[in-house]
Amino acid sequence: MKHILFATLTAVTALSGAAYANPGNGHNNGKGWGVGHVPLGHQKKMRQFYAPGDRLPDGYVIIRDYDRFGLRAPEEGYRYVRYDDEVYQVMRDTATVARAIGIVSDLLAN
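The structure assignment produced for this chain is given below.
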């Protein structure tokens, strides 16, 4: 019985993927997460979202047609902007996020 158990465990270990794994250079041979390459399909999931208090980087678009997005006119000192398919209410002078409004496609669907 011990010989059968030993033979079974040996076969399972020999046939497992871990037995044939090539550790490479520890970075998935230059194609993995550790070296700045993001696997296909994960880029959109990894988009950065901005929270209140965060400053938006340059490249946002000011929204002037509030009705199109179903928004009320912003309070004094604020404006609505579109950045990376998200709509934010930001402070006019600093582009600091006051609140995240929503995803552009959801707002335009209403």
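Interim note for the steering committee: Residues 2-15 form the longest helix (14 residues). Strands lie at 61-63, 78-83, 86-91, 97-103.
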